[in-house]
Amino acid sequence: MSENIFSTFQTVVHLSEDCRSTHVFVVMGASGDLAKKKIYPTLWWLYRDNLLPSSTFFLGYARSSIEIKDFLNQKCRQYMKIKPDEEQRFQEFLEKNFYLTGSYDKSESFVQLDLKIVEIAKLGKCENVEDANRIFYLALPPSVYTSVTKLLSQNSKARKPHFTRVIVEKPFGKDLKSSNELSAHLSTLFTEEEIYRIDHYLGKEMVQNLIVLRFANQIFKRIWNRDSIECVMITFKEPFGTQGRGGYFDEFGIIRDVMQNHLLQILSLIAMDSPVSKNAEEIRNEKVKVLRTIPELKMSDVIIGQYVGNPNGQGDEKMGYLDDPTVPAGSTTPTFCCAVLKIKNERWDGVPFILKSGKALNERKAEIRIQFKEVPGDIFDNTCARNELVIRVQPDEAVYMKISTKKPGMNFDPVETELDLTYKHRYEGEYMPDAYERLILDVFLGSQINFVRTDELAEAWRIFTPLLHQLEQQKPKPIPYVYGSRGVPDADELCTRVGKYNYSNTYVWKDSSKSKI
Ligand SMILES: NC(=O)C1=CN([C@@H]2O[C@H](COP(=O)(O)OP(=O)(O)OC[C@H]3O[C@@H](n4cnc5c(N)ncnc54)[C@H](OP(=O)(O)O)[C@@H]3O)[C@@H](O)[C@H]2O)C=CC1
Ligand SMILES: O=C1O[C@H](COP(=O)(O)O)[C@@H](O)[C@H](O)[C@H]1O
């Protein structure tokens, strides 16, 4: 493992040498899909790279009786990317793993969990062996959140001075009411400092970069407002449908699945004012402040769609959303949505923020597109397209600014081009940690910058809840779009008419890394 890693590396090195306390990371729901595909692989990478406190153990907890070493070796291994020369390290990782079978609703099980953690803590080489810092990752269905969190807090919290931290996965409720109820429940059991609501988009490199790009560059600071910016578009696209998990998806739909959380989180980082400092509370204060100025979405602000099979497609592409046997017949759940949000504050009044997301589209892409106003008093007879700053979150992280330049040669004509920061070229060979790696490490470090605070969550639900309720009550039929297409064409019209977005259709990108000199 090279010594590069990420911004928190200095702190991380310090942390890994910290031997004052043993840490026990408990995976609640250890036998499940999330644990298998994401959590255990992430723990392995953090362990492999020596980023965790030296005395850290992992305890799986679930109802099924499993042999944890076999589970890690046989079920999780395919997601762990273990290189041949890492086998010995992997064996060491296996030795750090434990497992306990227990229920999600009986006190006795959580008393056993407490005893097991104390027992594991004694294996640690640290001075303070009577207990351990405890991190609980709730990789569980929402139906058991309430009982698990209650029983954890009553029976399995760490004894002082050790800390307890609880990582909660979405969905954080289904609307404002249910989310507030869940938050109120959690707040009777844990302090805000103990709760880590994970939104994995906040762990992505380019999402984390937003704060640096915005607040470390004078050139952006002065133009980041309604005087210069015409509109902002934040897009999430996936080239696959429900893949047989339609039953789960149908309960939520695309708005709850990615818009109310991931895309709105990105929006708040783009739109917030400068925080007083890098401190988590200061940053989250600014995010909440801007969210509070966003009016609730109305039906007229959105276009919803649902994919139908593509008769000319391959395999899955032939199957529409309603063809998935796990989707209830006649479902009106949107798999595509384009919404235009307004921000009623001094900086952004009149600048539409377009959120666009969909499944079964033409590509995998998450990006932020900031479109600037046309040049006033343009001397080039309006031949120049608007400047656009694009921050591509995935795939292939990049930041590029579309500009006009003089066409090289004997003329005076502008031509569209770009200032291009393509990560794989500029930062070739740099280690790019997975979102979960950064976020789980943040929990060890006690950094809540990239986790969703209670008031932030409530604001996010406030914006979307009236629309979600209206959709559920009125059940408008989503507009069909073909699997593998760009989505609902009416969305382009909404983007232009309400969103003020201008697609010039003139830009051609030339990948300069492929040019021969
Ligand atoms: N560093 C790098 O790697 C760089 C790569 N590029 C690549 O060059 C290509 C083109 O660049 P890009 O910035 O996308 O510029 P384009 O002007 O081609 O596209 C702009 C956006 O407009 C949307 N769009 C496409 N068709 C329509 C339409 N008919 N009506 C309305 N909107 C439309 C697309 O979004 P959607 O379909 O999602 O709605 C697209 O993201 C991309 O593949 C990009 O990745 C460019 C610069 C740098
Ligand atoms: O939260 C979710 O995100 C994934 C997409 O995550 P990504 O990191 O692969 O972009 C999405 O597929 C899923 O439906 C949603 O619940």
TrEMBL record:
Keywords (A to Z) from UniProt: Carbohydrate metabolism, Cytoplasm, Glucose metabolism, NADP, Oxidoreductase
EC number annotated for this UniProt entry: 1.1.1.49
Protein name: Glucose-6-phosphate 1-dehydrogenase
Annotated catalysed reactions: D-glucose 6-phosphate + NADP(+) = 6-phospho-D-glucono-1,5-lactone + NADPH + H(+)
Localisation per UniProt entry: Cytoplasm, Cytosol
UniProt superkingdom: Eukaryota
Molecular function GO labels: glucose-6-phosphate dehydrogenase activity; NADP binding
Family: Belongs to the glucose-6-phosphate dehydrogenase family.
GO BP term, example: glucose metabolic process
InterPro entries associated with the record: G6P_DH, G6P_DH_AS, G6P_DH_C, G6P_DH_NAD-bd, NAD(P)-bd_dom_sf
Pfam families: G6PD_C (PF02781), G6PD_N (PF00479)
A Gene Ontology cellular-component term: cytosol
Known role: Catalyzes the rate-limiting step of the oxidative pentose-phosphate pathway, which represents a route for the dissimilation of carbohydrates besides glycolysis.
Associated pathway: Carbohydrate degradation; pentose phosphate pathway; D-ribulose 5-phosphate from D-glucose 6-phosphate (oxidative stage): step 1/3
Domain Glucose-6-phosphate dehydrogenase NAD-binding: 26-209
HAMAP family associated with the record: G6PD (MF_00966)
Domain Glucose-6-phosphate dehydrogenase C-terminal: 212-499
Protein's organism: Brachionus plicatilis
SUPFAM superfamilies: Glyceraldehyde-3-phosphate dehydrogenase-like, C-terminal domain, NAD(P)-binding Rossmann-fold domains
